[in-house]
Specification:
about 290 residues, alpha/beta, Rossmann fold, eight-stranded mixed beta sheet, 8 helices, 8 strands, globular
Length: about 290
């Protein structure tokens, strides 16, 4: 019965426009922090919009959502605010992350700017400085496409908390407790990776060392959190092998994981509200979170 009620609520949210509005915009860095805003390129400094669940119960789960867009733009609604409304309906707080971007002229930001944005967001939430009633052991990260690469980077490269850090949030670990990767870019090589995302993140001629370091399937270890992955078999932009190699790496270390590959959908389908098959994935993901005690 619980599953039927939840599925009905989720389908209602998916088939109607998102009407929830962020309760709060949270800027990630103090004003005038050096090298955060590039004059002439950035219109806004990095931030996250907070969408709290309607439930005010203590010990809630929270998720940082990283929209995709090849590290050059953000699919803010389709892969940000709409998923946030669905997770809100399931009692989960959502933070949609506006991380730093780049362009073909390399006027924006390369790694590690985006990584610093997502890890700062996770640390701020875990520190208790933002959000109320969130369980610090139930904070996850989710990403679509290039945002999936960013989420997988946060899941595999962790900042340890520094107990003596001057900034309060830096005293807390950035390790997410779970990861949700939706048609993610994983590899930075040119065999099955997404070339444009690589260029925007690492520049036009990245070193072999950086390609290796930022191919996140190679960064999986025993400390990588449980992960749920989704892809479409006919994704031509970001082949499903990206999810497959990450899943295989997770299982090498016996990390709880689930991988779903639909036979259609291509790339960038978001929550697919009008597809009877694809639109099931948010419910499937939330059931997985429930079964893993998140």
């Amino acid at each position: 019965m619980r599953s039927i009620i939840l599925l009905t609520a989720l389908l209602f949210c998916m088939l109607t426009p998102a009407t929830s509005s962020a309760q709060e915009r949270i800027w990630l860095y103090p004003a005038n922090t050096p090298d955060i805003v590039h004059t002439g390129f950035d219109s806004l400094a990095p931030f996250m919009d907070y969408f709290p669940a309607s439930s005010k119960s203590a010990g809630r789960t929270a998720i940082v959502i990283c929209p995709g867009g090849a590290y050059a733009h953000l699919a803010w609604e389709k892969e940000g605010t709409i998923p946030a409304s669905i997770f809100n309906a399931a009692g989960i707080d959502a933070f949609v992350l506006h991380y730093r971007l780049n362009n073909r002229n390399q006027e924006g930001h390369n790694y590690p700017a985006q990584y610093n944005d997502v890890t700062t967001a996770l640390q701020l939430i875990r520190s208790g400085k933002v959000g109320k009633g969130i369980d610090p052991k139930k904070i996850g990260v989710m990403g679509f496409s290039a945002g999936g690469h960013l989420a997988s980077t946060a899941a595999t490269i962790h900042k340890e908390g520094n107990p003596t850090a001057e900034n309060w949030h830096e005293r807390f670990s950035s390790r997410p407790d779970f990861a949700i990767l939706i048609y993610p870019v994983i590899s930075m090589d040119t065999v099955f990776g997404h070339r444009y995302s690589r260029e925007m993140l690492l520049g036009k001629t990245p070193s072999a060392e950086m390609v290796q370091q930022l191919s996140t399937e190679k960064r999986v270890n025993k400390n990588t959190p449980p992960t749920w992955l989704l892809h479409a078999d006919n994704d031509k932009a970001v082949p499903p092998k990206n999810s497959i190699v990450f899943y295989d790496a997770l299982k090498t270390f016996e990390i709880p994981a689930a991988l779903t590959i639909f036979d259609h959908g291509g790339h960038g389908f978001g929550t697919a509200p009008y597809d009877k098959v694809l639109s099931q994935w948010p419910w499937m993901c939330i059931e997985w979170l429930h079964n893993n005690h998140f």
